[in-house]
Amino acid sequence: MNRDVVREEFQSTQVSVMIIATDNKQAATWSFAELTPAETQYLTHGYHRYPAKFIPQLVRQLIEEYSSQGDRICDPFGGCGTTLVEAKLANRASFGFDINPVAVLITRAKTTAINPDTLSGSFINLCNELENGLIVSSEITDDRLNLGRLIYWFGETNLKQLLALKSRIEPEENPIIRRFFLCALSHILKKCSYWLTTSTKPQKDLRKSPEWPVKAFKTHASRMMQRNCAFFEEIQRLGSNEPVAIMRKADARNLPLPGDCIDMVVTSPPYSTSYEYSDIHQLPALLFGFCNSLGDFRHGFIGSKSGNHRREKNIKNPKALIAIRNLRQVDTGLTNAVESYFLDMNDVYRQIKRVLRKGGRACIVIGDTELRGVPIPNAEVTVEEMCEIGFLLEKTIERPVPGRVLAPFRDKNDGRFTSPDNPAARKIYSHEYILIFRKK
């Protein structure tokens, strides 16, 4: 294939890597600029909001180009399950892992096609119970939950209603249907709280009028049922050979898989301190009792400012060291977080190598970060470290990121994604990299 090739050589003490940027025409085929947000939420992809998630069309294209039917796909940062859903639709077995129990709940709901008649019957029964009267306790008492934090976000009235609604869902005997309804409940929590509607950060808006939980739940569950019906029809076409999609709570730095068992990895790692997923998902985590304190919930998240700061070994990558040295001059706290991030990600890359078969491919979608004005070269560090441990970089695609699909703005102070209304917003997230590696 004829193309203009731009080569930039990155040097490290142990490895020399060529990053090959594809021509504009090929890069454009990976931008999916023509898609609206609604078009990226087809089937079960619209079950639950999730920040900075994969575009499913991008995942599908990677799976179809770099794997075959019957292959086993893995996403060590499973998130909301985009890779697993697309793998199932493409007739590939898939395995996903995430440290976040909310992500595990969402993914398991999204990857399970439920018989529409069975689901409809359960929903009608649940609605009848709700219409006959939702028993709301006069007092809020549950020693298992962090009630102070929950009241802070929902207020007493809405919290009582949410707890009563949850108590009607939890006795559902069918775990698949129970999980479906809990996913619907999780999705509406932000609407039913004082969380600032336009923000992914935990900001309280006392002027907000939270939605009535029962009404919001019925509306969203009905939408999910329509999506499930379409998903069920798609899966039925696979017949009796429906591939497995297994999602487990696990740390990407220690994947619970045997060696050489995966044909392809498709993932988008967290970017250093860009999103605090533990904060973003604190509402369902607290309401469902996944955690009692936010400090405990944050433990283990990669790319979090609140993560464990590692000192047991030194970072060796020159570009990572330069970024850390520059950042240390302006913000020591962020320096510790970025240092831990690079160390943790190196562990993840080694796990990817361990579980991939020889010749298997790892497709990593990642962008760069800027913190306090200091560039954090995530993509370059990824290339160098992957090649150093035994991968061959086959292709790099610089993918334009359409603003209507993912907000390209970041806070110039902390580097996190933000809205253009933020006075500190800076438009820097215009592209990301699709890195295609092959295990030697």
Radius of gyration: 22 Å
Total DSSP helices: 14
- CATH topology (fold) name: Rossmann fold
Number of domains: 1
- Strand neighbour order, sheet with most strands: 5-4-3-6-7-13-10
Low-confidence stretches: 1-18
Q: Major β-sheet, in short?
A: 7 strands, mixed
SSE sequence, one letter per element: EEHHEHEHHHHHEEHHHHHEEEHEEEE
The CATH homologous superfamily is named Vaccinia Virus protein VP39
Helical content class: 25-40%
User: How many beta strands in the DSSP annotation?
Assistant: 13
> What does the average pLDDT come to?
86
Structure classification:
alpha/beta
CATH level 1 class label: Alpha Beta
Q: Give the second-level CATH assignment, the architecture.
A: 3-Layer(aba) Sandwich
Shape annotation: globular
Distance between the termini: 24 Å
